[in-house]
Structures are given as C-alpha cells and as structure tokens.
Please model this.
Amino acid sequence: MERLNAAALADIENIVAKHIDQPGPTIEILHEVQDQLGYVPFEAIQKISEATGTSVAEVYGIVMFYSQFTTEPKGKHVINVCLGTACYVKGAQQLVDQVERLTGAGVNGTSEDGLFSLDATRCLGACGLAPVGIIDGKVYGNALNDPAFTKAVKKIIAEEAVEEEIVEEKAEEKV
Model:
C-alpha cells in the first residue's frame, strides 16, 4: 500500500477537525476527503474511525456501499459508461470496449499514464438516451453512435499530448 504524503495527511486531519462536532459527520467527511484527494485512502478511513468513534469496518462499509466513493486514485479524466439494462441492450459493452482501446484504461481501472479512469456504472436514469457515457461529468446520449462522445475522448487525448509536449519543452529549456 502506498503511503500518503504529509500534505495529504494534513488535509485529512483538517477535514476531520472541521466536521467532527457535527451530528453524524462520517458521510460529510468522506465526501470532502474524496473531493480533496480524489479518493478515500485507508489512512483517511482510520482517522475518520478514530475521530467519530466508529469502527474502521463501519467506515469502510460506508465507502464500499456508496458508489461515489473509491479507495483507489482516479485518473485526471473520468469516463463512466452505464451498463444498466437499456444501455447494455443498446451496445454499452461495445462502448466500453471502444473507451478501453482509446484510453488504455480497463473497466473500473485507470490508464497507466494516469490520464483516464473508466468506470462501469449501473443505471444512470437516462434510459431514453441509451447507451449513455459520461466524460468528466458531461453526459453523452447515444454515445456509441453519436460521434460527439468519441470526439470528446480524442480531443482530451490530443490536448493532453500537447500539454505533455509543452512540459517537456520547458524541462529541456531549464537544462
């Protein structure tokens, strides 16, 4: 297990301290840790447990129960594909396969370069738009057949490549 740096541990301490006097603070603390760090590391679960007097197992159970929480760091860009019945029937698996090929991220995983996370979700409540894909919070209906979804993924890839090139040029200038 990777250890958190001092800044992340300090963030967790501050978040816990901010919410500890509220009634039932566990969910609020988990949300804020997730927002701040991008995931809920085990160290946060331990600190929340200690601060709230709740067992580690109970806090971990909350993290595992609610799908918006994750114990693994996410990529810079998060893509969700609905695998609910309507979306699946309309080709969601092919959409997942396409995103895997484009990004290198496996289902419920993150690409090696850390740019993309691909999450398979259950019903998003947009069955009339099936299959549904979400890129960084933006919803795309009929994502398998509408080129806007694929174009959005490719645009991110191109922008990230340009950004990486700029970073490399600046690093070379310093040398």
Observations:
- The mean pLDDT is 88.
- Helices lie at 6-19, 26-37, 42-52, 56-65, 85-89, 92-103, 147-174.
